[in-house]
Amino acid sequence: MEILRISRDVYGREVLQGISLDLFWVFLAAGIAFVCVHALYRWLFAPKR
Amino acid sequence: MNSTTTAGAPERASSRIERHALIDRLFHWITAATVLVLLATAFLPTFGVQFAWVTPHWIAGLVLIAAILFHVVRAPFAQSLRSMWIGARDIRDLLAIARFNLRLTGEPPPKPGKYSLAQKLIHHLFALVLLTAAVTGGLMMVRMDTPWWRRNPYWLADSTWGVIYVLHGLAALLLVTMIIAHVYFALRPEKLLFTRSMIRGWITREEYERHHDPERWRVSE
Fold it and tell me: How many angstroms separate the CA atoms of B112 and B158, rounded?
């Protein structure tokens, strides 16, 4: 999976086009993973107040 | 400062404490709506949902920039900056929370003032990411035709535009993760009072006494 989108200009030089939008799924998964881990922790392990 | 009891019948006035003024709630929900429109118009076309996304994207962006400017100008005068400041006491709270959650002590951590350390951190993180998205988005508008100016793609060097695009995209991706976490905490049963206060403006006096240290968040009787 690429992190940056890079193209070449008419002179053959690399031009930064932006961040790879394939990373959307990585950030989405990170959010869902955080929610799952926190919910499980609070449900199973966190001390009761 | 908006930490006053709400007006109304005497019994209501004594049992409800205003946590968010109407203008602050409007700012929150306008920001939320514009960010959702911006994310939808940014990402849906990349998933094959084709529509004319550019115009709603930049219009939502301008509304977001206006909302942020309004908040940046208003907040220092109308709200208590101290309530959002992260100080040494917050660090001590963090250590107490860690000790309690690691079961190193049975003593519950101290109650926060108006905002907990977690709430301050998520506010500051949203501020950083939204400002990045707004500034880079504003610069990117130079490259498109609007009712006010003609596009100028040569205003900055290609390499500079590349960095701006990367920062704009990174801010958008971070917002995806942050919104998931923000909505999750807003929907947790023990946090619903804060969600209600962002909708209706108030918490009850019982909730205030249970969740806040009156010395750190003083409200009128």
Answer: 48
What is the C-alpha separation between B208 and B191, in angstroms, rounded?
13
CATH code (residue B171): 1.20.950.20
CB of A49 within 8 Å of a chain B CB? The answer is yes
Question: Domain map of chain A by residue range?
Answer: 4-45
Going residue by residue through chain A (49 aa), what tens digit of pLDDT does each one get?
889 999 998 899 999 999 998 999 999 999 999 999 999 999 999 887 7
Residues B183 and A33: beta-carbon distance below 8 Å: no
For residue B118, the distance in angstroms to the closest alpha carbon of chain A comes to 14
Answer whether residue B13 is part of any domain: no
What's the pTM? Answer: 0.90
Across the interface, do B162 and A18 touch by the CB < 8 Å criterion? yes
CB within 8 Å: A21 and B181: no
Q: Chain B: nearest CA to A3, how far in angstroms?
A: 10
Whether residue B108 and residue A19 make contact (CB cut-off 8 A), yes or no, is: no
DSSP letter, residue A46: S
Q: Tell me the pLDDT band of B11, cut-offs 50, 70 and 90.
A: very low
Structural domain range at position B50 = 20-79+116-200
